[in-house]
Amino acid sequence: MQSAPSHPKELERLSALIEYEVLDSEDETAFDELTKIASAICGTDICLISLVDNERQWFKSRVGLGATETPRDIAFCSHAILQDEIFEISNAMEDTRFHDNPLVTDPDGPQIRFYAGAPLVTEDGFPL
Prior knowledge:
- The chain has 4 helices and 5 strands, in the order H-H-E-E-E-H-E-H-E.
- It has helices spanning about 10-20, 30-40, 75-80, 100-105; strands spanning about 45-50, 55-65, 70, 85-90, 115.
- The strands form 2 sheets. It has a 3-stranded antiparallel beta sheet with strand order 1-2-3, with helices on one face. The chain has a two-stranded antiparallel sheet with strand order 4-5.
- The longest helix is centred in the first third of the chain and has 14 residues, at about 30-40.
- The chain is globular.
């Protein structure tokens, strides 16, 4: 498994994330509706709105997954925030970055095979 490196401007990115005051906030209908729509459009069992802080990815909204967060070092979204475009993994079992990731291999986990993520980016260009 390959953990993603930190963002080149990690301290500024984390500062921007904190300024939004959304981490560990209550569920919100607007976010949940977006997640449900995205899941339906994409035909996926799992759909998340994730925010990556210094130690975890926290799920602001989720469909098809009971967990509220995962460690950052195993998070696919940690890789996605380093991209300018959609980050797609067509088969996580065959991708050297993820083939032995517990989110792929753990029989009690989500057993991710396909992943697509697009970074949520602030006005100043910091991916959250």
